[in-house]
Structure formats: C-alpha cells, structure tokens
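Bit of a strange request maybe. I'm writing a small parser for structure token strings and I need a real example to test against, not something I typed by hand. Could someone generate the tokens for this chain?
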Amino acid sequence: MALVRLTILLSIITAMSVLSIEAKPTIKKEVYGKTADGKSVDQFTLTNSKGAEAKIITFGGIVTSLKIPGKNGVMGNVVLGYDNLQGYENDSFYIGALIGRYANRIGNAQFTLNGKTYNLAKNNGENSLHGGPKGYHKVVWEVGKSFVDKNGANLELTYLSKNGEEGFPANLKIKVIYTLTETNDLKVDYFATSDSDTIVNLTQHSYFNLAGKGDILNHQLQINADKFTPTDKGAIPTGEFKSVKGTPFDFNSLTDIGKRIGEKDEQLIFGSGYDHNWVLNKKGNELSLAAKVFENTSGRTMEVWTNEPGLQFYAGNFLTPPFVYRGALCLEAQNFPDSPNKNNFPSPILKKGQTYRQTTIYKFSVKK
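Reply from user aminoacidic:
Good idea to test on real output. This should exercise your parser:
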C-alpha cells in the first residue's frame, strides 16, 4: 500500500514539474557584433510557446531569422539573411530591414513641401530609393524595451531621424514594436512624431521563401487589389491607376508567381519581373487582408494584413549570390511610390503634432 502511495505521489510531483516548465514566450538578448565604426549591435531572440522564433538585430531593425512550423511540425527559416553583421553592413538588397524615411522611390530624388524643394541622395539612377544610401536600414536602433505580455514576445526599437538626415526635413522620432504572437504571427507596429511638417513612409523589407530553399516561382500568390500603379522605365509611377484585369498583374486568386512573370509585358520588362505597387481594395486605413502566399511542399501559408493603401510585390529579380535568383519575395506594405510628387496619390505628409501609425501583420498557418 505504501508503495502505491509513493507511486501516486511521484506521479503528482512529475505532473507538477511538467506544468512548471510548460513553454512560454521568451526573449533572449545577446551580443551580435560591432559595426565597422565600432558601434555595438545586439540580437534579440523572440520565441512563443509553440516554438516559433524571430531573431532581430538592432542594426537596421533587421529580422535575421524567422522560424515557423510547416507540415508535421517541422520548423524552418522562412526569410533570407546573412551569417554575420558584415554581411548586413555590405548588403545592397535591404535584406530583412526597417525602411525609411521614405520607403520605395521618389522621382528625381526631390520633392516640394510647403513651397520648399528638398533634394535627396540619388541612389537608384536619378531617383531616391528607401530613404537614401544610409536610410534606417543602415543605422543602429536603440532598444526601448523588451517584454512578454498577453500578446506574446515584444521588442521595441526607437530611432531619432534628425532634421536634414539624407535630405529629409524635421526631427522625426520613430518607435517600432515587433511582436511574435502565440498564433505564429509577426506583428510590426510603427509610430512616428515630428517637430515640423515632413513626409513619412515606413515599411519592413524581409524576403520570404516559405519552403526555405530554391526559388519562389512555384509559390502561389493572391493580392487583394483590382488596380496597380504602372511605372516608367525608371520604376517611377506614371500617376495612372491601371486595372489588373486581363494582365499578368491579376493576382485576385491564388496564382503561381512563375506562371506569367516571363511574359512580354511592358511593365514586366521595365521591372525585370514583378516589382510594382498594387492599390489595395479597402476603405480608409482599416486593417485588412492585403495578400496571401501558399507554398505546397512545406504547407505554409502567409497572410499579410495592413492598414496601408499599397503593397509592393517584388519577386527578387535582382538577387545575386549568396542568394538564389528569385529565391525570395518581398511584400512591402506602404504608401505609393513617389507620393510626394503625385497629387492624386495618398498624401505622405506628417504634420507637426500628428502621429504616424502603421500596422502590418504577417500571419502564418499550415495546411495539413
């Protein structure tokens, strides 16, 4: 009888021990390296109770790795990255980074605000791209705080973009919160305030491959948009809103990315494939489904939800080693390219006293 009691007691203790070590969201901080000019860079590893993991470094606010379960619970990294800090410092593809002050292109690298013309760095032909040569992807962000709450594991990054930086006016205070949720979502919340009028367009520039290898031509893509903004040869929008119907740009139903990417379409020739802004079907700044990607071998699906008016789909047309040509895709939630110079596009102006807010969520699931 005593042996039975002892066995029961040991079973209870074992059960209590298992409960006490039940997986919970965690955050781990470690030193990642030093920049060429001697600035320390940290890496934060966010995990949830299901084993999903996001690694983010303070240099560029870059997501260096994002491990998500696939079929049979197999974990896999679904974003491109380098092996070390020097790779990111020398990178020209904006791999995994936070982008600003103005994501995408500004034509002729200039714009006019309140009657004054501002000249920016020309780092994409005659145009300005992604905030200039040293945009937010090339600076070390401060850590506001890292914490676990009911939403999951959170990392708050901050940056002060000073007046005149890369040619942009006003001192802009930025806060970005990355959240890895218990439902395997990576949520990105952006906030910014300015001491005078300026323009703002922030985004996240991760390259996704849901299979974790090969190219993305067999990935299926759906974009919730009836129109896109065609461009000239320099990738600057013409100002037109063109229907996707009957064109290779119609992704209103899940379609293989490689199905029409090689067609002799003028816009595909200009972009060397897909590298365009879609006008999302939505009312106002509601948080809504912008796009869905499905990859059959892994079973992974990724949905992109945002309150932004546009989505830039880039098919990795210019990726070179160490990466695979068209080995990943970008879905950049954003205002439209060249909005500062297009009166019929949504205004990118942030006035003094206002707060810029943006939310984008990458939601992951698995098809059994």
